[in-house]
Specification:
With 163 residues, the protein is of the alpha+beta class. It folds into two domains: 1-30; 33-162, no CATH class. Helix content is 17%, strand content 61%. It has one helix spanning 4-30, and strands spanning 35-51, 58-74, 80-94, 99-112, 117-129, 134-145, 151-162. A seven-stranded antiparallel β-sheet has the order 1-2-3-4-5-6-7, with no helix packed on it. A hairpin with a 6-residue loop joins strand 1 (35-51) and strand 2.
Length: 163
């Protein structure tokens, strides 16, 4: 008889705990802080056509791309964060028969919440030609908005070198 009351309390707490755990997903789905995260991967080869910015000569080739994209957001709220990273191997041939090989890296993000939003993008490219030439580029772009939608920071810094 002495164990009946503590055992009843323990059993009641156990039932309450299991009930709360079972109800937690439904409560979270209707609450303010449900978070969804998604990740996507991309691996492919794409054609490239353009003009060599250093010589003005047309080229064609391919980029072998590996990328990953992440997005996280709060359901029923105005908050989101997204980012991507891409690396590429580059192979080009221009109209004069010069072949180019190299790599590129791109990264970007986007953040929004109820107080502000911002976005940043970076790229780095290095390509070397069979004639000894090279093309190097690096860029950083950023923009920030305050809670009123006014731009508070904005810049685009590009460094481009032909050699």
């Amino acid at each position: 008889m002495a164990f009946r009351r503590p055992l009843g309390i323990l059993l009641g707490m156990l039932v309450l705990g299991v009930t709360m755990l079972a109800a937690a997903p439904a409560a979270l789905a209707n609450g303010h802080h449900e978070v969804v995260t998604s990740t996507m991967h991309r691996h492919e080869t794409v054609p490239v056509h353009g003009t060599n910015p250093c010589t003005g000569v047309a080229f064609t080739g391919t980029r072998d791309i590996n990328s990953v994209f992440h997005i996280t957001y709060f359901v029923n709220e105005d908050e989101v964060w997204a980012t991507f990273t891409e690396t590429s191997k580059i192979a080009l041939t221009d109209e004069n028969g010069v072949t180019y090989s190299g790599h590129a890296t791109f990264w970007g993000n986007f953040n929004v919440n109820e107080r502000n939003r911002n976005s940043t993008f970076t790229q780095s490219v290095h390509i070397r030609g069979s004639d000894g030439s090279s093309i190097d580029a690096h860029e950083v772009t950023h923009i920030t908005y305050n809670g009123n939608g006014e731009i508070t920071v904005s810049f685009d810094k590009l460094r481009f070198v032909c050699s």
